[in-house]
């Protein structure tokens, strides 16, 4: 059976047992900002096990794409070095949500393995949790007790977390030893006896005290590594030898001209396995909306891609090649996962861009590594210092694990602790450089609580809880504190007849610190009237709501991979940073503006509701961001339920019409893979237009003068270039050959055009004087331009037009001209050196 048949037979087997075939969840998980990537089949059913969600079916079967890049069985540095680690794999699984339980799960697993797939029963072992007599007795129907083994919590008890659903599991292992003598190797980490299926029986809930409580409804959650079972069924020595990986490996082998070696330790084989594995991970992650970046899942992808690029270099590739393998991946998996087909162009462009970016620094970085490795202290300690590893990371983009890999190949180690120390020092320097009012108020401590009233009012009366110099804490305030990219409100505090300007507001824990324009008298307990600058707040609200509309418009025009990477909401403008791999074209800028303005003109009511975080997670349309910390209760802001839904604690307009109008002013790159848009709204656009009109008016006055200056500069540049070239004529003549008392001078002139080549030809002809022939050439793009000159005494015997014709023909081109000067062009750039060397033989003889 081939891989496709094996996958289909698994799904069909359980479909016939009334299971619903469900699609794989994306590898970029929705609604779980604590999870980098989907790493198990159960992720999409987590809410069912937690009791917070349900499905319309009680039995399910699927093949789930999973990414695992850390953990005891998933060390990145081992991928490719051995033959069983992967960063991406498919997990085949069947599920019961309060329906069938242990007996059916075990019986069906045995039926599929032995009756459908015809695995040798004598090679199968089962493991159960040490106290799970129920599972043990069921297995006795199929296996002798000598091949049923009990293990403790480490191997045979599954838990979702410290608390929550959990239960015993039963694993099925396959003995690959020649004599079927692998009983002692079960759960011993041996490649000769491997786990092929894990059946998890979720029957308990562990409470906060650690006590196991029986669940009302029991569930089954099974997982089988697809690549592994394919290798077993096909009788292959490793997963990489199956038709899951071999089409990719064969293509790599073909591209580099190196046969895939049988020896698993061969460096070329390791490189091919790494590239094949990493291609799959990158393609699926990008198709599902992730992009390489500098933190979170983005940095994981960047590490993986740079590791693949470095191994490609080991195979002799000097240019990007990983992106060229996307087509072969689509041929093998596109029918199962159509998202990689629809996102083909995005996948190729992102991978190629990242490869090009890294290769630009790779050679220099490797040279620096060699210098570092050769330093006396490195040789003495057989170790790369953390400071040097940090230099490679900070300057050349070498992830730590890449430096460790290169070091390990030379029998050296890396001082990881020192590297992390230097990383922390850099963070401290960055924090110091960003020091602001937030740093000034961070020392304030206390159990103060400030009620924020600014969603509903612009002015409120509160009591002073704390005063220190120019800093004031109230029990109630309408002032928004800087948070979530939105800058704070400004305004005034009225205290006992005195008015203080509020310059900034910072949030510390549960209270807000108002920073005033001067010191405030310590009047704890006194009333204060807090008034925000209403006009300024309204500008901020317009820009914040427009930011949400912009975010969704970007996703619609550029793709679902768009993720917010930072923002600033200011009264005068908005700034939005996002993950994207190329400049946004002017055409797409206009499309984005049209979408945002259409939503403004639709006069959509802005709906803000509070929900529990669990309720919000259930809505797949709600934008959440990995790494963000959300409270138990969140504000869900909706501007058209079919357009923009985001979690947001900021201040917003009541209707999109309040934004007025939206205009993008700039689009720039701020780092690799991150773009920045700045835009304005409402009255700000009037100022923008006035400024543009002023610039245009000034430019019209300057235009005539500027054109004159440009023409003068062009003349000066042409004159300078000609002077530079003609000064080299003497050198050309000095290298001339003698043919029957005729001087024959040939030369290649870099970086010039045909007009300049003719001018230089005139100068060469003048300096040849009598009895001379000259051939000048320059390369322009992928073509050669030629100019031939002949002195007057030879132009009848050796007309330039005839000579240039022979020369151009040699280069696959043609041309002609007058007897004393002729020009031509040729296509074969590679043959130019030969033409200049053999010009007499090719054109004159």
How are the elements arranged and paired?
Blueprint: H1 3-15, E1 20-21, H2 46-50, E2 59-67, E3 88-97, H3 102-116, E4 124-129, H4 133-139, E5 148-151, H5 153-156, E6 157-159, E7 164-175, E8 193-206, E9 212-225, H6 226-233, H7 246-256, H8 267-287, H9 296-314, H10 326-333, H11 339-342, H12 344-373, H13 376-381, E10 383-384, H14 386-396, H15 400-409, E11 413-414, H16 416-433, H17 437-441, E12 451-452, E13 459-468, E14 471-474, E15 476-477, E16 491-495, E17 498-508, E18 511-516, E19 527-532, H18 534-558, E20 564-569, E21 574-579, H19 586-601, E22 607-612, H20 613-618, E23 633-639, E24 644-647, E25 662-671, E26 674-681, H21 684-726, H22 729-734, E27 737-739, E28 742-748, H23 754-768, E29 772-780, E30 783-790, H24 800-810, E31 814-817, E32 821-826, H25 832-837, H26 839-844
Parallel strand pairs: 1-2, 4-5, 10-11, 12-15, 28-29
Antiparallel strand pairs: 2-3, 3-9, 4-7, 6-7, 7-8, 8-9, 13-14, 13-19, 14-18, 16-17, 16-19, 17-18, 20-21, 21-26, 22-23, 23-24, 25-26, 27-28, 29-30, 30-32, 31-32
Can you offer a commentary on this structure?
The structure is a single chain. By secondary structure, the protein is of the alpha+beta class. The chain has 7 domains: 3-241, 2-Layer Sandwich (BirA Bifunctional Protein, domain 2), CATH 3.30.930.10; 259-361; 374-432, no CATH class; 437-532, Elongation Factor Tu (Ef-tu), domain 3 (Beta Barrel); 539-682, 2-Layer Sandwich (Threonyl-tRNA Synthetase, Chain A, domain 2), CATH 3.30.980.10; 689-727; 729-844, Diaminopimelate Epimerase, Chain A, domain 1 (Roll). 39% of the residues lie in helices and 25% in strands. The protein contains 26 helices and 32 strands. Strands 1, 2, 3, 4, 5, 6, 7, 8 and 9 form a 9-stranded mixed sheet that branches. Strands 13-14-18-17-16-19 form a 6-stranded antiparallel barrel. Helix 7 (246-256) packs across helix 8 (267-287).
């Amino acid at each position: 059976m081939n891989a496709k048949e094996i996958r289909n037979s698994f799904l069909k087997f359980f479909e016939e047992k009334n299971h619903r075939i469900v699609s794989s969840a994306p590898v970029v998980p929705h609604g779980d900002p604590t999870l980098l990537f989907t790493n198990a089949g159960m992720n999409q059913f987590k809410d069912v096990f937690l009791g917070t969600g349900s499905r319309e079916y009680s039995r399910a079967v699927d093949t789930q794409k999973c990414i695992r890049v850390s953990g005891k069985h998933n060390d990145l540095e081992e991928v490719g070095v051995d033959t069983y680690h992967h960063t991406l794999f498919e997990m085949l699984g069947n599920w019961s949500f309060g329906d069938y339980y242990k007996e059916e799960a075990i019986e069906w697993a045995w039926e599929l393995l032995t009756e459908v797939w015809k695995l040798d029963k004598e090679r199968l072992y089962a493991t159960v949790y040490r106290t799970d007599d129920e599972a043990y007795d069921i297995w006795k129907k199929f296996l002798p007790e000598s091949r049923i083994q009990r293990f403790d919590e480490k191997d045979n008890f599954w838990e979702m977390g410290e608390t929550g659903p959990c239960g015993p599991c039963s694993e099925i292992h396959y003995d690959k030893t020649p004599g079927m003598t692998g009983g002692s190797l079960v759960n011993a980490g041996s490649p000769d006896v491997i786990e092929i299926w894990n059946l998890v029986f979720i029957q308990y809930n562990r409470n906060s005290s650690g006590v196991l409580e029986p669940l009302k409804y029991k569930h089954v959650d099974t997982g089988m590594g697809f690549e592994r079972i394919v290798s077993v069924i096909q009788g292959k020595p490793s997963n990489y030898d199956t038709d899951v990986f071999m089409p990719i490996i064969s293509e790599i082998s073909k591209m580099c001209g190196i046969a895939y070696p049988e020896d698993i330790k061969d460096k070329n084989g390791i490189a091919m396995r790494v590239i094949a594995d990493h291609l799959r991970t990158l393609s699926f992650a990008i198709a599902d909306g992730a992009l390489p970046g500098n933190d979170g899942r983005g940095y994981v992808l960047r590490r993986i891609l740079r590791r693949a690029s470095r191994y490609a270099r080991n195979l002799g590739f000097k240019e990007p090649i990983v992106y060229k393998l996307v087509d072969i991946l689509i041929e093998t998996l596109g029918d199962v996962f159509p998202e990689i087909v629809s996102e083909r162009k995005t996948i190729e462009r992102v991978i190629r861009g990242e490869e090009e970016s890294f290769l630009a620094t790779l050679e220099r970085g490797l040279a620096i590594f060699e210098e570092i490795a050769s330093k006396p202290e490195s040789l003495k300690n057989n170790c790369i210092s953390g400071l040097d590893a940090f230099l490679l990371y900070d300057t050349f983009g070498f992830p730590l694990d890449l430096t460790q890999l290169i070091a390990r190949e030379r029998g050296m180690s890396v001082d990881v602790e020192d590297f992390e120390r230097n990383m922390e020092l850099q963070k401290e320097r960055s924090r110091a450089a960003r020091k602001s009012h937030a740093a000034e108020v961070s020392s304030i401590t206390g159990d103060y609580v400030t009620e924020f009233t600014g969603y509903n009012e612009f002015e409120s009366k509160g009591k002073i809880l704390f005063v220190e110099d120019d800093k004031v804490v109230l029990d109630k305030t309408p002032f928004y504190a800087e948070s979530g990219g939105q800058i704070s409100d400004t305004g005034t505090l009225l205290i006992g007849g005195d008015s203080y300007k509020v310059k900034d507001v910072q949030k510390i824990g549960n209270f807000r610190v108002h920073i005033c324009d001067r010191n405030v008298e310590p009047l704890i307990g006194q009333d204060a009237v807090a008034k925000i600058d209403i006009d300024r707040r309204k500008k901020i609200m317009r820009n914040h709501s427009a930011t949400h509309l912009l975010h969704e418009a970007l996703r619609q025009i550029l793709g679902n991979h768009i993720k917010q990477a930072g923002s600033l909401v200011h009264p005068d403008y908005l700034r939005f940073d996002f993950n994207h791999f190329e400049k946004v074209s002017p055409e797409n800028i206009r499309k984005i503006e049209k979408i945002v303005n259409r939503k403004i003109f639709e006069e959509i009511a802005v709906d803000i509701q509070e929900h529990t975080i669990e309720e919000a997670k259930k809505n797949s349309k709600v934008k959440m961001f990995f790494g963000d910390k959300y409270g138990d209760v969140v504000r869900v802001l909706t501007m058209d339920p079919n357009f923009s839904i985001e979690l947001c604690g900021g201040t917003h307009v009541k209707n999109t019409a309040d934004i007025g109008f939206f205009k993008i002013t700039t689009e720039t790159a701020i780092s690799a893979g991150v773009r920045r848009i700045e835009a304005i709204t409402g009255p700000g656009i009037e100022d923008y237009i006035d400024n543009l009109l002023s610039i245009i008016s000034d430019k019209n006055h300057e235009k005539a003068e500027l054109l004159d200056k440009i023409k003068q500069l062009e003349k000066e540049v042409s004159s300078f270039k000609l002077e530079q070239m003609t000064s080299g004529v003497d050198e050309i003549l000095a290298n001339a050959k003698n043919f029957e008392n005729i001087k024959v001078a040939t030369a290649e002139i870099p970086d010039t055009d045909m007009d300049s080549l003719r001018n230089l030809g005139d100068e060469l002809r003048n300096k040849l004087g009598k009895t001379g022939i000259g051939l000048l050439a320059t390369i322009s793009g992928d073509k050669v331009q030629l100019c031939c000159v002949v002195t007057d005494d030879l132009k009848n015997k050796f007309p330039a037009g005839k000579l240039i014709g022979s020369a151009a023909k040699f280069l696959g081109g043609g041309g002609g001209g007058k007897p004393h000067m002729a020009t031509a062009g040729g296509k074969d750039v590679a043959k130019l050196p030969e033409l200049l060397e053999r010009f007499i033989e090719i054109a004159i003889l």
